[in-house]
Amino acid sequence: MSDLDRLRTSAAPFGPWTPSAAVDDVERGKQFRSLATSAAAFLGSGHELVATLRRAENDEAAAVKALALIDKVPSLIRRKLLSLFCSVTWPRRSP
Hints:
It is a single chain. Helices cover 66% and strands 0% of the residues. By secondary structure, the protein is an all-alpha fold. α2 (25-43) runs antiparallel to α3 (48-56). The longest helix has 19 residues, at 25-43. The radius of gyration is 13 Å and the shape is globular.
């Protein structure tokens, strides 16, 4: 079992880290890019997380590292980043 598969079954079953049956590779890449955009807005485009998320589009090791970096972001910024990601990825539908 790879490091990314371990994360998918334990700590991080959200967004691009969900099991591969739930999110195809194309969508996963788009989600990493969306997270990178949010990270750039909240942390600055030169932040290590932005570059790591961009690499994660095609690199499993970078995906593992990106999740670890997200966990190190201060909690308020992390909540804002993930909230923006969720609202863009899964927008609310009007009744």
